[in-house]
Amino acid sequence: MEEAIAIVKRANIHHCNNIPRITQILSVLIFESLQDTGTLLQIGTGEGKSTTCAMLAAIKALQGNKVDIVTTSSVLAQRDANEKEGFFNILGLSCGSNVEDPFGEQAKICYSKDIVYGPIHEFQFDWLRHEHKKYGTRGDREFEVVIVDEVDSMLIDELDQTARLARSVPGMEHIAPILCGVASELFNLNKKIIQQGDKTIYINGEFEYKDGELILGKDSSEYYISDHYAFVIGILKDLIQEMITGGELQVPNFLKDFILYKSEVIACSAFQAQLFKENEDYIIAKRDNDNLDIIPVDYVSTGIIRSNCHWTDYLHQFLQIKHGLKLTSENLVTSFISNLGYFKHYGQKIYGMTGTIGSDSAQELVRSVYGVNIGFMPTYKPKQFEEIDGDIQNNETTWHGRITSSILDEVEKGRAVLIICATIKDAIEIRERFISVVGYDSDKVRLYSRNDNDEYLAVKDEVNSGDVIVATNLAGRGTDIKTSKEVEKNGGLHVIVTFLPENLRVEEQAFGRTARQGAKGTAQLIISEPNVAHKLEIKSYSYNSINEFKVLRNFKEYIKTQETKLYVVEKIKLQDLLFEEYLKIERNVRNAIQNQWQVSQLEDIWGIELTKLGNLVYKNHKAQKGLQDIASKFGFIVSKENVSSLNSLYRTVNTSLGRTITDEHLQLLTIGYFLDRNYVQNSISRDEIKSNEFFDKLTQEFTDQAALKILSLIKTINIVLLRSDKEEPEIYRVKGAKDTIYIGLEASSEMHSDKYKFLFNWSAATEDIEKYLNQALEEESIYVQENQNIFQRQDVMILLDSIMRFEDEVCNVEPKYSLSASNINYT
């Protein structure tokens, strides 16, 4: 190993006249010492991950392995392949990029090379063409070693993303009139649904507003809607079924069952399309055929415009209808592979690096799913980075004003400024406002919001004093912005992030654009309170600092991570397993028949059956039917809203209560009271918290039944729970109840999770329900000051903070902030 390190070190010096740092060499040694199991390393942003990656790839290739290097984008893949080609050539190795080679019915040249750079989707599509289409795209290349750059993005954020190849099927054009009919019905429905205070009303007939008062027409009637989403989806599903079965449209027989199976999916896509926004979720641009089309944008994590992607399940078509674009047919997905499924091909030979591994829950997810080790590397030089206290503005006007003044303050100091925005729309607006309000030279304000044009040049050249770059998350990951000596002398690059990032990893990646390689730099969050409240689904709030918003955000990520680990991973594995089984059947058919038309027909049948299966395979039909039966017995209808399994209890209860606070806030209030009653009042010590017995006991005691009892007490409501596995309701009754809510539970089986559902009462509560209510034991209600936010519960927060600190100590992670650092004092 010493000889190998010496060789690649000398090659790097010859190539770029740079001596690899001790931290880079140490990283390679760690990867090599743990080569029997995969390893992921957190290497600070700006610490030369590209060089470390190339050195590791060279050693693996010199050992006789073919090495695939997965990047977050096509731009980075081409850049790194071009920049490192000379380095590999010195060692007698070849490298290429799978982005540059056009695909066809033959092997790509790049796969004959020792090292191949490329984005994950190109590797996946090439495998699908090779394995399913039998184009021989990968030649004889095996899955030997993979090195993943920015590993958190692909192994965590995009774990469930799937690359799909689709084919056109004759007759699919008959679905277009159905889509247009659904879009038209939804447009008319939206005009009849109005919001009055916290109530949603559907008006059947004419109406008008006069002096702020709702006036109904002569034959009009109004209905209160408790679940807007379920109400609309139900009407759209009925419309689709009526169009298919009523003979209103001429649809080929083989498509009728297919459309009926897809009716709920079509309705949901129509609803979703009206919520999507141009220059946020997508752009409108020309594709290769010169027709304007909808192009998806990953604005949440990377900012990448996915020019080769289409949304499925008719969402793409509904967006085309929304903008009056040429309507394309939905192709039938016949082959696919998830990120998880693809990386599993490499077995224990997965190596990765990133500037941000993320939270404890994210680390545990990666360990449990991929079976890898995780390590943390120190920085080469002490960081000269300072995070300035975040700034919260209470409306969009003052938010824009604060961003403008902050940019001006920094450029007047002779610094350069990078502004990272949530969306393309925000980036364009902030740039234009700064130029017009300040009268700043537009040539010095660069825009980097798209990766499908030449805007990437904005971050290619060195920035000088007074330069401003306005960007999306495209500049927030993997972008190395060089600063002039003048900029460094004046304090380095200043980064302004204008939104609350999706998670800690995205936030740290954005801040990591400055203070790289020992340079100076500062960063600050400047956020709009209404925007972040909408993002976190907060209807009423009284938060004192950005840190409190961050804690809520991190709590949401924890829920999402646990849901992924418990449910999503199993779903992905099942999808990939189904496709592998299909490939075996197809291979046998090809060998036995060798008739391309029959193989093609098999592919069509598989695509249609797969679509049907996708709507059914993950549902616990026994539990669904059990809940529907007991609900019907007591006079209820089960809501069709698709609620995530992990926090469906709080979402369902919250929906029943009118959602005046977030689901997470309600969950925190419940947890807070439980901890308060069981542990804080008993003066539990921090040493006790550190014991495994404490967490085991906490997990065992804080059951759903305990949570429902607390919810009943703190909200002063009766809760009636109907379970799919029981004949009698569970009652949680409180003295002086303000109301009674009714919820259902699809109880878990071995392969499915518990899922709570909201119940609609279509008849007055039956005498049976009243009997159960009257017989139930009444509990005394508990007063909890709900308008006081959870972070002001001092005793509870001390305990929660202690738990988080303990988790950080166990995982050897330096805490970034405490839950309420300014208010908590330990005795």
Describe the protein in words.
It is a single chain. This protein is α/β, with parallel strands linked by helices. It folds into four domains: 2-165 and 338-376, Rossmann fold (3-Layer(aba) Sandwich); 172-330, no CATH class; 384-542, P-loop containing nucleotide triphosphate hydrolases (Rossmann fold, 3-Layer(aba) Sandwich), CATH 3.40.50; 619-810, Cathepsin B, Chain A, CATH 3.90.70. The strands form seven sheets. A seven-stranded parallel β-sheet has the order 3-4-2-5-16-1-17. Strand 7 and strand 8 form a beta hairpin. The longest helix is centred in the C-terminal third of the chain and has 48 residues, at 546-593. The two termini are 52 Å apart. Mean pLDDT is 83; it is low at 787-792 and 807-827.
User: How would you name the CATH homologous superfamily of the largest domain?
Assistant: P-loop containing nucleotide triphosphate hydrolases
Number of separate helices: 28
Low-confidence regions: 787-792, 807-827
Text of the CATH class of the largest domain: Alpha Beta
In quaternary terms, these chains amount to: single chain
Mean pLDDT: 83
